């Protein structure tokens, strides 16, 4: 919150990890503008939504703090953190997570794994943006229902796509294992068909078992 006066003066704020280097009062003059859902789900755009949100919440936290200066310090902090400060902290953490992880995802050598992890990270960002939707409307970043609709529709779309990429996702976040590459490890959803196919391909599956003669002449004592 102490950063806002510096940001308002146009001072470039720089931390060692670059977590707030985007802070600029001009960010608040930007508005939501994408032409389709693919653009909406782009990681760079998701980071842009968060950067506007963090800047807005930082300004609102500072403004509210100034209005509450006549109160005692405990009441001032308590009343301010109920809304803006708490949301600001959460948004800052989520933005930094997406920012750092996206850089690591770009380093993935496998295109398939990189694509799946990008979808997963986009889903993480959009899913968490849901709780901040009122702030985007309150601050004038969005108008109309498109932003909220895109959030809902993109979550459903990404979930559906990640279902089909389940095996790639397992390979991306876990070490290779026998189960992942077995008949039940495929992501097509046809588990029984693949189990049947795997069984029928085994050597001697249709031959008479060697132990059949041992039980052939057994009779029940009942």
TrEMBL record:
It comes from Photinus pyralis. Residues 42-215 form the Acyl-CoA oxidase C-terminal domain. Keywords: Fatty acid metabolism, Lipid metabolism, Oxidoreductase. It comes from the Eukaryota. One of its GO terms (cellular component) is peroxisome. The keyword Oxidoreductase applies. The keyword Oxidoreductase applies. PANTHER family: ELECTRON TRANSPORT OXIDOREDUCTASE, PEROXISOMAL ACYL-COENZYME A OXIDASE 3. This is Acyl-CoA oxidase C-terminal domain-containing protein. Pathway: Lipid metabolism.
């Amino acid at each position: 919150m102490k950063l806002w006066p510096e940001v308002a003066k146009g001072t470039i704020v720089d931390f060692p990890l670059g977590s707030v280097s985007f802070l600029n009062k001009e960010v608040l003059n930007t508005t939501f503008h994408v032409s389709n859902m693919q653009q909406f789900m782009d990681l760079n755009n998701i980071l842009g939504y968060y950067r506007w949100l963090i800047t807005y919440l930082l300004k609102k936290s500072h403004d509210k703090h100034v209005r509450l200066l006549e109160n005692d310090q405990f009441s001032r902090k308590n009343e301010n953190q109920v809304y803006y400060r708490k949301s600001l902290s959460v948004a800052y953490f989520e933005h930094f997570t997406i920012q750092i992880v996206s850089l690591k995802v770009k380093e993935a050598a496998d295109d398939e794994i990189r694509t799946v992890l990008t979808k997963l990270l986009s889903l993480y960002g959009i899913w968490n943006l849901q709780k901040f939707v009122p702030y985007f409307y309150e601050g004038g970043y969005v108008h109309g229902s498109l932003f909220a609709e895109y959030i809902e529709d993109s979550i459903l779309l990404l979930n559906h796509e990640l279902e089909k990429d389940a095996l790639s996702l397992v390979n991306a976040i876990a070490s290779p294992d026998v189960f992942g590459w077995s008949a039940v490890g495929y992501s097509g959803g046809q588990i029984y068909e693949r189990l049947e196919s795997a069984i029928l391909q085994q050597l001697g599956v249709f031959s008479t078992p060697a132990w059949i003669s041992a039980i052939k002449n057994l009779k029940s004592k009942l």
